[in-house]
Amino acid sequence: MNRVSVAVVALGMMIAFSAGALYNQESTITHENMTGTANIVAAAQNSNTGAVGKVEVEAVKGDGDNLIETDPFVQADTQFSASKARKIAEEYTGKNLGNYDLIYKIEMDSTVVGGPSAGAAMTLATIASVTDKKVRNKMAITGTITESGRIGKVGEIPVKATAAGQNNIENLYVPEGQSTKVNYQPVLEEERRGLLVYKDVEYQRQVFNISEYTEKNFDTETSEVGNIYQAADKMLK
Fold it and tell me: Smallest Cα–Cα separation from 224: which of 133, 131, 142, 156?
């Protein structure tokens, strides 16, 4: 191969490499502004009531910050949930969000909402915004999110499940092991010995099946999910 041929081949490889680099750069983000939403279910602090609301994520050109806008007030650890949601969304989609600010807007008919239990919903909404997908409207999720993408356990599942059913949610997703709740009810037992009566309290184990409860009373299907990938497969369209 002569020098001219070598030069042509080298030039062709450089052009192909440059085109590939540009393609990969362009495929990182497809829009200037992107949004995604997901239903969240929460329990109001210091009360026995639940509420259904929405988390909306807007991705805009910026410095890679996470901004929180809430109504009502949410606990401070919501900021940590937002950071984890960004990281998991980047890993899930393979896209770099370093040049985007993520604005999280949480709206709910409640006074105070705990931040960690919104982590899974915040992550799904972030993934939806980046991929042009949508979270199905009649579905909701509750659960924390870890840096590995695992959906962690939260409290007040029966209260949240009732709120989901009352708000016409068709599918509620909860962390693994939380579609049932075990309670121990005190039972007073008496034993008579002659003129004396001895009383003792024993605790009987009772299992409350949340899936059966929501299906029977609200026609809402409550299912367990272990990680964000399982949740995305079920909830994104």
Answer: 142
